[in-house]
User: Which sequence fits this backbone?
């Protein structure tokens, strides 16, 4: 369970509504959110309480909008989190707006175009950094291949100079159809190998040929999270040396190498 400080502005109803939804979602996920209107006792000094809660938490979730970036108080909270080595700062963008220069190079989680993709990515980020039991965000499915998605994140932090590659051996168990009704045809192991190869080559439709229909949305969600994570850094990822074997009960164990490559000439830093 993580103690998460929600930094937002109450100048705009849309910001307050999102912050409330965020608070409820975090509670469902098993975390302990802190939000001013709920956690500051009556008669207390607001500035003192905010400062105390800010530095007593594990991370700050900054709600980014045109109103919040105009608020000195909100930007001060973000800057304070950024300056505190113990704190994590995650920016959640809910409106197209100009990002303040100090935070311009930070990655952010985008809720403006596909909110469900935003919730999924936030869930992944928090579950990796602050593992906690809890329920899913309503309407956001938990991908069956979530284990593989979790393994993707940390190696990215180590990607370095252009032209180099980072090789990581990973292990994943994929649920596939092992009978003739599978759209891909062939054995479950062959289908799993084709799934991995297509998925990491960004051929999502090709990958979906090898999974059953009910996995379609979940697989797309994982693929979108991968693309969102890698896009801002200029990284590409491919799977090599794929070897899958059937384990029974429609389970296939796959060993493969993920190759991360970067075309830039400076280290990649993932916030």
Assistant:
């Amino acid at each position: 369970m993580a103690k998460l400080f929600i930094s937002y502005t109450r100048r705009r109803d849309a910001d307050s509504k999102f912050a409330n939804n965020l608070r409820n979602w975090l509670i469902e996920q098993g975390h302990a959110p802190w939000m001013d209107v709920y956690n500051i006792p009556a008669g207390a000094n607001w500035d003192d309480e905010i400062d105390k809660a800010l530095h007593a938490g594990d991370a700050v979730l900054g709600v980014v909008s045109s109103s919040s970036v105009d608020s000195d108080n909100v930007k001060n909270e973000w800057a304070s989190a950024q300056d505190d080595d113990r704190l994590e700062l995650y920016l959640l963008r809910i409106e197209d707006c100009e990002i303040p220069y100090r935070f311009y190079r930070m990655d952010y989680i985008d809720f403006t175009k596909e909110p469900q993709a935003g919730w999924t990515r936030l869930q992944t980020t928090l579950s990796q950094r602050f593992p906690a039991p809890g329920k899913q965000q309503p309407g956001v499915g938990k991908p069956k291949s979530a284990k593989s998605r979790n393994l993707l994140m940390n190696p990215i932090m180590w990607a370095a100079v252009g032209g180099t590659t980072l090789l990581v051996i990973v292990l994943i168990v994929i649920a596939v159809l092992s009978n003739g009704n599978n759209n891909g045809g062939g054995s479950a192991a062959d289908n799993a190998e084709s799934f991995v190869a297509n998925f990491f080559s960004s051929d999502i439709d090709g990958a979906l040929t090898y999974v059953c229909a009910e996995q379609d949305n979940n697989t797309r969600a994982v693929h979108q999270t991968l693309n969102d994570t890698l896009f801002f850094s200029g990284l590409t990822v491919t799977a090599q040396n794929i070897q899958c074997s059937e384990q029974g009960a429609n389970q296939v164990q796959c060993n493969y190498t993920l190759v991360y490559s970067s075309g830039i000439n400076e280290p990649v830093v993932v916030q």
Notes: DSSP finds nine helices and eight strands in the chain.
